[in-house]
């Protein structure tokens, strides 16, 4: 080929050098291109409105800036007391800049995971003549993972902290079997920051420490490297999260309030260790088969089903590698560990230890973002051990491409709305501010609070917070402090009904613009007959589409259930709703409406 088309071959080589990962220009070009692509995809997805954002991401930043940690009582449920540092930039952007700008910058941030992922692949592929283009391609395949795609451009934090964890791994890889002290310090800085911003990254901190200790070489050198890494990480974690942990300790008696309260016995929470155990394997057999099981059943490890194939392929390749290992040991000649072997062992231990810790502590798919970004590289490495060199690319390439296509074919979505200039809008009732507002139930409502009254006390009742008797007494005292309102929101099951109502209103506006609502409304009647969810309002004015009877009945039933549940929850505190005084109000995230209700509360005196 090169002999027949010398100019074409020379041009291809120049392009590979320019865009490949072996040059600084190539690394910069590739990183900028991937980050820009992620930013564009984030814009196309729309305004983020995931459950966590509506519950605590917006609230926690606002509460910290307003100094409300000791004033309010868990308005964002148990998540009210997560450190707010990761949420502050988004909160400030969302309130003071056009909403699409915040989405674009989140996409850019998430796309930066490409650089450390590609660098790890570059180090793992040392000695391979193809690594100039193969390393960035494997990293790009990692960004096509199910968990990363589902979080692209949103505020949940796993994709936002992934570049830091991967950067720590890249800097912690030894060179020539040795570590550089400065790089280890920077790795610790990134690792400590990742854990401080999102505590679930602790599994990767432990995994990286174990990987450094397990690397080949003298044990004194490994111990020194692990100590330096841990010291830097702990110092940064203490610097970032120390003041927050001290605030919680001083205010409530538990630095991780309300988590691990079985140890700290803070009076406002039950003495239990709060954890989400819904996703953990129910048996050893299920744990051993977990990658195959959650590939076949994505909802086994996530509320949002995220299609993926890479974990099943990794699992099968790992089993085949383990089965072939004794035979390879018999045939191979013993040789001292090289720098390549040190990098491979550190990477392998980090990956395996991270997955095992994830499986034992969480088993929640989105916490696997870091490992999924590295999964194509891990699969390539396993197949290198199994297959002859000339066949690795022929097998691994299609397998990785198929995995990316499976993830891309059905992106998981944690919730998006259409863009508006203002990300959040909340209709605040006229009149004086109430003394307190009780957020009733376990629906995410705290995102509205920054747009309501600043001199009001907010507290949750009947939420996921592990309330103690002292908590209930505190609620009664809050309710006795003056005029109190209860805030209610329809559950997730009612949201599709609300969206249907919004679509019907849009149809009515278009019908009016086109003049279809005058006369006998023949076209509107024909459309209503063809759509079981539509009907026409009774005669008496311009024709209007309305929801069919079944949808209206479902909405009325959901509303009655909402009121009954609120009455039941408030009765635990000796309180009751004044149903006649309830008023509905509007709020929006992007173009998506989220109605809420405020009702006077009786019995606080």
Structure, explained:
This protein has helices at 6-19, 24-45, 51-65, 88-96, 99-111, 114-124, 131-143, 146-151, 158-172, 181-197, 202-214, 219-252, 261-264, 284-288, 290-296, 310-331, 339-361, 369-386, 389-409, 469-479, 495-513, 522-530, 549-571, and strands at residues 47-48, 416-417, 424-426, 436-440, 457-461, 484-488, 534-536, 545-547, 576-577, 583-585, 587-589, 592-593, 596-602. It has 605 residues and is α+β, with helices and mostly antiparallel strands. The chain folds into two domains: 15-45 and 98-409, no CATH class; 435-605, no CATH class. Strands 4, 5, 6, 9, 10 and 13 form a six-stranded mixed β-sheet that branches. It has a three-stranded antiparallel β-sheet with strand order 3-11-12. Strand 11 (587-589) and strand 12 form a beta hairpin. Residues 1-5 and 333-339 have low confidence and may be disordered.
